[in-house]
Every structure is written in structure tokens, then in C-alpha cells.
């Protein structure tokens, strides 16, 4: 905690990965009189994965005053309108669906029909309730159009990015140094504490000691300060998110350039494919309880058509869960040091951004003292747990059921109360979205996202052939919607052209 409500004078950030440099940029932009140092170890290095974002990365760049043209080209970045989930369902017609980002302004024209058709489909009518037909972002992804519209287009499209994580780190490090952040190459080997438990200084192997009145722990999975020195408790998510490893390798990029991340279900987990300007980033997130690392690598190579290639694979262990207190004593953990949820919805950077910006807001509002820590930590915990529920729901509702891995996920019984309520409403409510709002159960994702996932996997009762009289009116509305989305699409350029 801070001793009083003023801004910290001296801040040390341990770790120079994406989280460390994001924190440094945000703090240096807001607190121009604070002295900020980032220490990073050459012996440890950064995790070097994490190349897809949500629209929060745009919020981050907005907050530090940079526009797309000022950073994207330097980071091999591309645009992203959402994530396509492939082969998570074997229900005919639902083998693939697209999850667009939330809160698009054109949604007011398209969402009501999606919700209406879901309810009709729930009652057994043969209407089109597949999410791919309802959103401009899905149309952009299908036609490989960039998400920044011509100037005269009246609706904004929220978008995220794909980027080379190493290049983004270098870019942010250079930018932060331009804001007077000091970069120190050194390895922290010891942490000194005051009598009250607050951190006094970190000591480097070269004998240097870095004192500060506030510390930010961005040291990755090790969590040197928060879980190490301060012994903050870790709450594991392993019980219902069983994936604990990943194998990663690049492949050649294709043209036209996609504007979506692809997440494909494999035998014992799922593979991401992220389009960057000069390569695809690929990885397979899997559980070692079901396959070993050699099998996972072979399966990923097969999936990417790289069985005969000598492209190198990297193997990583992952630990899912979060700390109980992200802000504890005079230390805030940001990034992998505060927790991690498998990257199925690419939420880690969003959580890091939320954590730092919310902390800055707290301190600026005079709430930087211990009495406000609980409310802060509860809020961040809710965000983590809400995302966990959404990811668990992907597994619980998978419609593959073709081997033990997928059967075990569908049989998962350890669901949070909130997730149980959402699934109950999906199967029983006469108005799923209205009831979600009324019971305030949607958590970290808006009802649109829940509806996209559940409808996208084809989680519907069978069509009732005795009740098929009224679908002509639904089809007429769908034709109007198709036309509306197609006409909106005329305002967008091919993705590659937009990047130029
Ligand atoms: C398989 C996988 C896929 C992912 N995909 C996504 C994704 O698509 N989207 C997304 O948003 N996120 C994703 N993530 C998460 C994302 O990679 C991280 O959140 C992000 O890179 C931030 O990492 P970090 O900065 O917390 O840690 P790291 O990158 O691990 O950085 C740790 C830093 O701490 C320093 N350090 C460690 N020990 C010491 C020491 N003793 N002394 C000094 N310095 C030290 C290191 O030198 C390094 O600079 C993924 C993660 C994994 C594992």
C-alpha cells in the first residue's frame, strides 16, 4: 500500500515483457513526476508468445496517445475482428462459428434479430440461428476486409490486433524510454522488506540495489515479488481448466491476409493460428494428462501440414489461475505474475491493461491506501473468474464427444454458480438475454458473446417438424439483414490494402 494518498515518487517494475512495458508506458504517461525504472533479466527472457488481442490493446494505445500508423508496421501487426472456432462442434451446420468482439455500434440493428431467432429456434422452429449471419465483423472476416471503415461510414467497429510479441516489447521499451523511463538490464536475486512487510528494494546479482516506494511485479510466471517475497496466495483453475502445456511454431503466411484468429479443436486441446504480416503464429494448447509433448508436436505439425518441415517447435508449461490479491502491500502484480487463463479468447493483455489502468485511477482518486485494496482486488478477481467461466463454458458445451478428452470436458461438474445459472437460462428461459440482464449473471462477457458461443455450437433442441408454418417471415427478415450487412461491407477495404 502507499503511505498516503499522493502519487508514488519512485516506482520499480521488475520484468520487461509485454506486461512490464505496458505498465511503464501507462505510468510514465500519467505520472510525469514519478521516477520509473524497469529491470529485466537477460538470463530469463520473455515468454515470447501472446500475439492476439481484444480491443483493449487499442484502448491501451489510445491511453498513451499512439495511433495504429505509429506502431503497427513496426510490430508486423494486423487487424483482428474476432475469433473463429472450428471443429468444437460436430452438429451439422455448426462445425464452425465466429465470435465477434462485443459492443459494436451496428449491433443495435442486428442483435435483436439474432436474439429473436434464437428464441424461435429454442422452440423448435427451423429458423437460422447461426451467429455467422448476424454480424458485420463476421462478414469482414469472411471477406478479409480490414475493420477501419471509410470516413463517411456512421458506425464504429471495435477491433483488436495480431502482433509479433517480441517486436511489440521492443517498441514499447523504446517508447517508454522516450518518456524518461529508465531501463536496467539486471537479474533480481533478492528482495529486501521493511518491518511491516512492504518491499524496500530489489537486489541485483551485480550488487546494485533498487529502492522504491512502489513496486510492480511483471516477472512472468515466477511472480518474484508478489507470490515470491510477499507470499500472496495463488488460486488454481486447474480443476476445471486442465490444459497445462503448449507447443508453438510459425508457418508461412497466406494471401489474402485473414483478419481473424482461428481456434481449431484438436484431439486433446486446441490450436491457435494468428496471422501476422510476415508469418502465422501457431500453437497447440493441450493437457499432458491426455497426450505427451512429442504427440502434441506431431499433431500440430500434421494440422499445419508441416510434418516434413524442420521448422523448430517451442514447448511451454502453463499454470492457470490467479492470485487472491493482485495489489498487496506496496506491490501490484501485472501480467503472468498475477495469473493466467489459457489464451482461448486472448484475454491476458486485456487483464493486464485493466489492472494497471484501474490501479492508476484508484491512486489518482486518492484511493491508493490499504482501505481500498480489497475493493480493487475483488474487482480484478471478478474479471478473472468471469473469463474463466466463459472459457470453461467452451469446454462444457463442446459438441465433439469423440474421445476421452472431449467427453471429460463435457462431463465437467465443477461449474461456478454463475455459469450454472447461465446454462439454466439458456435451456429454460423464454427470453435468454432479457433474463441474463435481469439476474445480472453475464459476468465478464456480454450476453451477445454467450449467445454466440451457445448458438455457435448448435446447442438447441431438435427442430419440431410439426411447427414449421411461420418461417417465411423469418426468412424475409434474414434477407433484409443480409442485404444491410453486405451494404455496410462496401465501406471497408481489403485487409492488406488497409495495412499499406
Ligand atoms: C501459450 C501462451 C499463449 C498466449 N497467448 C496470448 C494471446 O493470444 N493473447 C494475450 O493477450 N496473451 C496471451 N498469452 C499471455 C501473454 O503471453 C502474456 O500475458 C504477456 O506476454 C505478458 O507476459 P509478462 O510480461 O507477464 O511475462 P514475460 O513475458 O514472461 O516477462 C517476464 C519478464 O520478467 C523478467 N524477469 C524474470 N525473472 C527476473 C529476475 N529474476 N530478474 C529480473 N527480471 C526478471 C524477464 O526478463 C522478463 O523480462 C499467452 C501465454 C501463453 C503461455
TrEMBL record:
Keywords for this protein: FAD, Flavoprotein, Nucleotide-binding
Keyword set includes Cell inner membrane: no
Record-linked InterPro entries: FAD/NAD-bd_sf (IPR036188), Flavin-dep_Halogenase_NPB (IPR050816), Flavin_halogenase (IPR006905), Trp_halogen (IPR033856)
Binding-site residues, FAD: 16-19, 188, 336, 349
Binding site for 7-chloro-L-tryptophan: 80
One MF term in the entry's GO annotations: nucleotide binding
Keyword Glycosyltransferase tagged: no
Binding residues for L-tryptophan: 345
Location of the active site: 80
Listed SUPFAM superfamilies: FAD/NAD(P)-binding domain
Protein name in UniProt: Tryptophan halogenase
